Every structure is written in C-alpha cells, then in structure tokens.
Amino acid sequence: MTESLLLSRRDLDFLLYEWLDAEALTKRPRYAEHGRETFDAMLDLSAEMAARHFAPHNKKNDAQEPRFDGERVHIIPEVGEALRVFAGSGLLGATMDEEVGGLRLPSLVAGACMAWFQAANVGTCAYPFLTTGNANLLLAHGSREQIDTWVRPMVAGRFFGTMCLSEPQAGSSLADVRTRAEPRPDGRYRLFGSKMWISGGDHELAENIVHLVLARIPGGPPGVKGLSLFIVPKYLLNEDGSPGARNDVSLAGLNHKMGYRGTTNALLNFGEREGAWGELVGEPHRGLAYMFHMMNEARTGVGLGATALGYTGYLHALDYARGRPQGRPLTDRDPASPQVPIVEHADVRRMLLAQKAYVEGALGLCLYAARLLDEERTAPAEEERARARLLLDVLTPVVKSWPSQWCLAANDLAIQVHGGYGYTREYDVEQFYRDNRLNPIHEGTHGIHGLDLLGRKAVMNGGAGLRLLLETIAATARRADAAGGEAAEFGASLTAAAQRLGAVTAHLWAGGSPEEALANASVYLEAAGHVVLAWIWLEQLLAAQGGTSAFHAGKRQAARYFFRVELPRTGPQFDLLMARDLTAAQMDPDWF
Amino acid sequence: MTESLLLSRRDLDFLLYEWLDAEALTKRPRYAEHGRETFDAMLDLSAEMAARHFAPHNKKNDAQEPRFDGERVHIIPEVGEALRVFAGSGLLGATMDEEVGGLRLPSLVAGACMAWFQAANVGTCAYPFLTTGNANLLLAHGSREQIDTWVRPMVAGRFFGTMCLSEPQAGSSLADVRTRAEPRPDGRYRLFGSKMWISGGDHELAENIVHLVLARIPGGPPGVKGLSLFIVPKYLLNEDGSPGARNDVSLAGLNHKMGYRGTTNALLNFGEREGAWGELVGEPHRGLAYMFHMMNEARTGVGLGATALGYTGYLHALDYARGRPQGRPLTDRDPASPQVPIVEHADVRRMLLAQKAYVEGALGLCLYAARLLDEERTAPAEEERARARLLLDVLTPVVKSWPSQWCLAANDLAIQVHGGYGYTREYDVEQFYRDNRLNPIHEGTHGIHGLDLLGRKAVMNGGAGLRLLLETIAATARRADAAGGEAAEFGASLTAAAQRLGAVTAHLWAGGSPEEALANASVYLEAAGHVVLAWIWLEQLLAAQGGTSAFHAGKRQAARYFFRVELPRTGPQFDLLMARDLTAAQMDPDWF
C-alpha cells in the first residue's frame, strides 16, 4: 500500500510545523539534539516502514486471525517480522531517555510517527503500543532494578508488555477486582485470579511477556483503594536475565472479535497451580494510581488509533471517489455524455468533507494533546508544566472518546462512498469500520468517559480544569476576533458554545443529586467534545489563513464545515442538559 | 433462540390491533374470510418457525458463508431446510390470491410475519423475500402464461427469484445499463451482459432461478427510457414446465461481504456463449417502470429488515443488561455491597431507551406503510385508494432509509450495552451490526433516497404528496391537541417541525438551481425522517394513552424520549437547509 493512502504527510507537516510549532521544542534542553531534520527523518522512516512492513499483512491477519490450539497461539509470520523491524527503529522507546535505549523524541513527533503504523495495521500495532505504555509506567513508578530487568528488554523489543485490569466479574467496575497476591518471605508474591480482555495476552512474538497486573494483597482495604500493581512475567528470569521456566500464567482462551483481529485478546489464568510469581511495583494499595499512568497513555493512544483508522478510510474513499465514474451532473442527464467521477456529486463531496473534518480535526486534537505532554515534561516554568498537566487531564476523556465516535463515523461514510464495493472484503474500508468499533469500548467505555468528564474532570479542584479549558478556548477566540472575517464569526460561535458549556456544567451541579447531574453524562461528553473540536478547527483555520495552496483552501473549507454543520449539533444537546432531562433515567426497567 | 429475543409479540399486538386496527381490514371483501384468529395464527406460526428453523443457523451461515468452487455454490444444508419449511407455510404468497397459491393476507399482517424471519436470520430470508417480490411484479405486469409458468412455481417454493439491475459500470446510474437483448424470430430474446450485486444470484436451493433482468433492445432510446424487462431463467423449461437444459447464464463469482453473508451475492454473466434466452415482460422500453414495482416493495422490505435487525439487537441488549451485574449506584460506592444489573445505570437505560425508540418507531412506520398498501388495494373509494398510494409513494424513501440509519444505530448501541462481550463473535449483536450495515447501501443508497425525496417525491404533482403527508401529520396533531396534556405539547412540537419541513421544501425550490436545492438532500431526508418518526410516535402515544400496563407506560416513555431527545436534532438540520448551505457543494475536489 502506498503511504499516501495511510495518512497525509502534508497534513502532518501542517499540524507539526505550521500550527503546533514542533521546532520550538528543539530549544528545550531535553530535545536540543533534535532539529526538524531528525523529526522529518523519523516521520519518513515511519511512513515507509508502515507502508512496507505493516500495511501488507493487515488484511491477511484479519482473515487468518490468531488461533489457539490449546498449546500455543499461532500468528501469521508477517506480524513478528514487522515487529522486529519496528523494534530495530528504536520507536518502542521513542520518547524515553537514551540510557534505557530511547530516542528522546517529543511526544508530539512520536505520536505522529505512531499514527502511520496505526493507519497501516492497528492490530499489529497493539503489541508495541502496550509494550511502550508498560515500560513508561515502570519508568515512572518502578524501581531501578525493575527498570533494568524489565524496561530495557521491552525497549529493545525482546519482551512485550500487557496491562491486566479486567476480570470476568469486573470490567468497568475495578472495585470488584478479586485477583489476590499473597506475600512470600522473599518479598515476592504469588498471584491467583483470572484476567479478561488482555490484549497481547499470549503469543510467541517476543522472548517474554511482562504482565502488569492489578491484584489485592490480603488485608488491604476493599474497593479500588486495595489494589496493588504487580509485574508478572510469562517466563521467570534466569540469573542472567534471560527467560527461563514458565510462570504459573496460562492462556484459558482467546476472544474472537468483530475486528481488531490481529491483536490476540485473551483470558488469562494466574495461579492455577502454585501461584504466579509477581513482584510489587511501588507501594502496596497504590496500584490503580500507577495504572492510571498507563491508562491515560493508552486512552490517548486509543484516540490516535481511532483517528488513524478514520484517516486511512477517508483517503481510501477519496481515492475511490476520484477514480470511480458513475452518473452525471444534475444539469446533464444525457446518457450519451460520459459519466463523471463520483467526487463530482454533491452528496459524495459532503461525505468526503465530513470525513476530512472528523479525521483532520481528531488528528489535530491528538497531536495537541501530545504537545501538552511535551509541555508538561519540558516547559521552563513549573506553572506552565502544571497548566499543561491540568489541561491534558481535562481533555483526556475527549481525546479518547471523540475520535472513537467520529472517526468510526468517518469509516461508516468511507464505506458509503464506496457503495456496494465498500461493503465487501475485497476492499479495505469495511475492515477499518470493524476495527474502529472497538475504540468506544476499550480503555473505558464511552459512558465511563462521560462520567469521568462531567463527574470528575469538570469539577476537580473547584472546576479549575474546566476553567482552564474555557480560558484556553477564549484565547483562541480572541485571536480569531482580531483576525476578523469568517475567523471572527466562527470565533463568536465558539465563544457562545464554550460559554454554554460552562453554564451547563454549573447548572448541572447547582443543587440536585449526582444522579440528576450525571443522568446525561454521555450527552455532555459529546457536546463538550464538539466544542473542543470546534476550537481545534478554529486553531487550524487560523494557522491556515495565510496559505494560498489548495491544501490550505481545503483546511479552511473543512473548518467552515465544522462550524456550519457540526457545531450546531450541540444546540439541542445543551438544551437537553439545561432542562436536566430525566427521560432516560426515569425509565423503569420493567417498562422496557 | 427463544422467540422473545427476536421481536416483541406484545408490541406487534399493540401495533396491529391497538393502533392500526388490523381487524377493520376483515370487513373488506378481499379479507372477509380472515379474522383476528387467522392473523394471530399466522403470527404464532411465523414466530415459531423463525425461532425453530431460521435463528439456529444464523451464526453458522455467517461463519461458514456460501462458497463457490468454480462449479457450484455450497451453502450449509440448514438454509434449504428452513426454506422448505417456509414454503410449506404458504408465506411466499402471503398477500397473493388463492388461485396462484397465495394466502390473501393483508400486507400489514404479512409484514408482521416476515419481520419474525428477518429478525431470526436476515441472510436466509433474502431468498423468499426476492422470490415474493419477483412474483408480485409478474402478477402485476406479466402475461397470463408467464404467471402460470413462473409465478406458480415461485409461490410454491420450487423456483426462486432475483432482480438483476446493476452492472459493474452501472450501480446507482441505471441509465448506463448495457446488457442487450436481441429479438429472435420466435418472439424470444437472447441476452448478453454482466449483472452485479445479484442477491440469490446462484445456488441450488430451488429447482430453478427466475432472473428478472433489465436490458436494452437494440434500437431503443438511450438512458433509462430504453430499458426493457426480461425473464431469464437459470434452467430452460421442458414442455411440461420442469427445468431442463442450462440457460446461458453463468456465475462469474460471489462477493464476500462484511455481513449479510448468508445470502449469496453474485456477479452473473449472461450470454457468454450463444446468448441467454429471455422473454419480455410487458411492453418494450417500459422495464424500469415495471421494475419499480419490485423495487418499491424491496425498499419497504429493506426498511423492515433493518428494523428487525435493530429490534432483535435491542432485545438481546435488554436481556444482557438485566442479567449482567456490574458496578453500583452513584450513591452507593461501598465495594462490599453487591453489584447491580447494568440496566440500573442511567447511561445503559439511555442506550436501551434510544434503541426502543428507534426500533419500535421503525416497526410502527413499516407497518403503517404496509397498512397503506392494504388501503391502496382494498379501500372502498377510489379517492381513498389514490390517497394511500400517494402517501406511500412519498413515504417510501423514509421507510427505506430511516430504519437503515437508525436501527443500525440501535445495533451500535446494543454492542455498547454488551461492552467488550458485544464486540466478540461469541455473542450475537456484532453480527446484527454487520448485517445491518448493508441496508443504507442496497436498493438505492442513502444519498439516492435523499434525491428521490427532495427532488421527486416532495415536488411531484405540484407537491401533492408532501402536502398530503403534512395534512396527515396535522390530523394526528389535532387529535393530540384534543387529548391535552403531554400529547398536546408533543403535538405542538410536531406541528412546528412539520411546518418547518413544508417551509424548507418551498424555500429550497423557490428559485435557484436544482444543484443548490439538492445540495443537502441527504440532510433533508434525515430531517424529514425524524419528523415522520415523531408523527409515528405521537400516533403510538395516542394509542397507548389509556393503557395502565407497564407495556403502555414504556410506550409513553419512548414517545417522550423521541420528542425530547430525537426531534430536536432536526433544528440544526432545518437551519442548514434554510441557509441553503453550500459548504460541501463548494468544496473543490482539488482541495481534499
């Protein structure tokens, strides 16, 4: 597959250099050894590796999904080959320090690199994605020895990582995790329990698998406050750090999914025999807080993966629409005249422009979030770092959920542009649609993120996070106002919508019970998401304003589309929230 | 599978007897031999056959889809067995006269019966569905001899039927059909050409396959005005009517779809050798008009199929939500207290209520349309018959498109209610979602129906169809106003929305070019669809008003949901249309 069907490099250049000023990061000590050349080289390399090693087996790994024969998991060989190439690039440690084998790239650049792989093959990508997240967690919360023992081989691609949270009786409700970890005299633990939905949970793609497992140490507090985090490897290590005997972790079975089939997804049993050896990460009972390090990264990654799937679907649809002749303009019904490419039809153009608005908006949002990570890490003043941390915190549910919803909608439109062909497995877009349908479910469902945004993020620290978001939006609107013309007009629309978001939040929490306030939390998430995306589009419009190229004209038109067609959707949503509508909440279960 | 996971018999009873007054039809001479007992008996039989013979192989036929080995098509044997049982019930001729083997049921009852089978197994259903449509076309436009030769064996289930319109270069654009039919001295024709996307195009489920083929007789006018309709059987008939030699029709290949896999979908070549024998239906060059007989029936059938898939998905989600414990109420975070079934969570209830509003609304719409067919056929006065015909004509794009969009949305929510489980093939809902994704594509894409509604149906006969729809809606609103209370309130909302629909239509066509008027035809279709569904829900609310049961309370709550959450979506859509927004239309293809 050619790179040009995966992502638009022109768009990445725009987002990184014309908007988010990636080059400014090279002034920071952490990134001083980088320059635009090294960023560009990594982007070139990623695009090329993605097209050459990841995209070609995307369809095959869907049709011939991983299979468990009761003994071992069989995966087509292309996956392992692609991952060896990937590990060789150093991207597993893209943002990490050199001392653990990392490239010390900004998250902004690393995110743009990862998007190429996710667009090419989201199933194969999940392995490095989880490995990096696992390693980052241990870098933040593990001991020096744990970093040496587990992180280095992961960054080198010798070991892969997982995150083990859910259990059959505990999906969204982590308070109900039952897996227990019994302390042993040598300081280690023996784990007993079942973990569900473990992506990359078993395979032979790496020498070892490093499971990060939430479990309870007997005697700890109930609920999430009694969860501790453990490193539980598939293979115990020999003295020299090489994998030795099997740990007591066994694969009970693989889930057979609608999409995302290339990633094994497993039910794992820990401690069917004498107990699975595990070592504690950090302090007891603080496991969930540590795990949030990885979960937040995973949530941003889910948003980026959803975006990448939407993006490649859009490019496929555009390519098809430019090449497929069908029908004639409304003013020329003469059947003797030649048919026109379907991109000429207004409704096809509408579907393409909607996709463009969704996927380029979502990519902008994800890269903006990555840029915040870089600010959090390297901004000169602590105040700036704290500001970035807070803004990222409040944005995370949107970064995870908005692309999951709207880039799936983009994939739906990509199928529709293809007509009947798009519905067949002979074409690519139906797989993107199936793959993307996972994203509103994993790493916190859509509903969970609604509760997170309205119930936690919007009210934490006396509402400081939401205030910061609204101030940041207001600053953009002021720039738009100064720019005049349609930017000012859209800025005014954005200001009105943002003020409504603030007013609705205050209204929902002004008296009344949490049940009432949160009854329509998902609607709130969606309305807030559209306000955030309108802001991202206004930012892109401002960045594109001076441009005279067709590319810049397209950016401006997509921004217009978002303001004219998408942002108005929030009107009825805010009305519903302001009315504190309880229609759904008051539906008696017996009435269904 | 139990019947109660397919459809709600209680709801069907409500729609048929408490709302649409099916019993009144038994006063009409055509249906005089029927009574509620026979209607109920057919519904009971359908539910039982669907659960017993259709549902059990739904998953298997998806996993082991039909396969073409280059010689013949292999289909799991359960399909043929189910279809033999179905044919034995007489339902292939449900609405037809006894003289051709039919049951002479009202379309209203026949539709309700078919919905059971579509909910159980939409893939297997497509064969009888197309066969009945084919036979109905020939009953309306075929000769006496054609009815005897082809219709009788189809009604008996010995022959199956197809409709062959599309070609590789002619999907939505039927003006570009190239298949040619050369007249021969004996009055028959030889056909040459390729037909694409032929559902049921090849199989060995029946003794013969009766293809209805659009083709051009040389010398005819170009475009759609030069299309004639032909009967082209897979096997030529012997003197005694039994199938004999193979006709020159060959299977070039099967399409491999995302869903709806149980139905073979074929590329057929006619006339690879000496030409495929065909006989003309009716007069030359009137083929498309005849085909519309079948297409309109198929479009209503698509709406009903989409509804049935949405409905069974909803019932599966409801069943899961009642049985799956997870999490606790917001006011009880004590991890020692037992988990509650997820139906207790507001967001799950919202997703279930939305599904209920979509699927029960859509079922109401489809059965209302079926009732119009009965009026068209049997109303005492010609004026009433003409009124029913006109109203059905204007409603057809909505009946096809609204369920295809919103019952797919219901399936999406059904997956979401199931969480990760819903994404696996171990559960049923992911298949419903994949199956349902076909419906916005076939029998006219969503965009084509937008053009049909705004470009043809809303303006035909000087706008008589749309006027009739708006008058019919207004009559319901007046009844609601008389009923008072919330019915009156919703009636006022409906009146305002319907008036806006009328005003928008007039505005779009008042000056300006057709391109401008039709630039947002899909948005118009969606807004009009929501107005129509609000009307259907107000009708259901009025029918449920006196009821004291939990079922009736549920109907009222679903109606409230539709008016409070769904109808307001039309506000921004109407705004966009009133602004004659050209953002998408003015997107230069080079700007993408």
Automatic annotation (TrEMBL), chains A, B:
Domain Acyl-CoA dehydrogenase/oxidase N-terminal stretches: 40-157
Domain of life of the native organism: Bacteria
Domain named Acyl-CoA dehydrogenase/oxidase C-terminal: residues: 286-450
Listed cofactors: FAD
Domain Acyl-CoA oxidase/dehydrogenase middle residues, every copy: 163-268
Annotated keywords: FAD, Flavoprotein, Oxidoreductase
Domain Acetyl-CoA dehydrogenase-like C-terminal: 470-588
Annotated signal sequence range: none
Key word tRNA-binding present: no
InterPro entries (alphabetical): Acyl-CoA_dh-like_C_dom, Acyl-CoA_Oxase/DH_mid-dom, Acyl-CoA_Oxase/DH_mid-dom_sf, AcylCo_DH-like_C, AcylCo_DH/oxidase_C, AcylCoA_DH/ox_N, AcylCoA_DH/ox_N_sf, AcylCoA_DH/oxidase_NM_dom_sf
PANTHER family (UniProt xref): ACYL-COA DEHYDROGENASE, ACYL-COA DEHYDROGENASE-RELATED
Family in the record: Belongs to the acyl-CoA dehydrogenase family.
Name of the molecule in the record: Acyl-CoA dehydrogenase
Organism from which the protein derives: Streptomyces boetiae
Lineage: Bacteria, Bacillati, Actinomycetota, Actinomycetes, Kitasatosporales
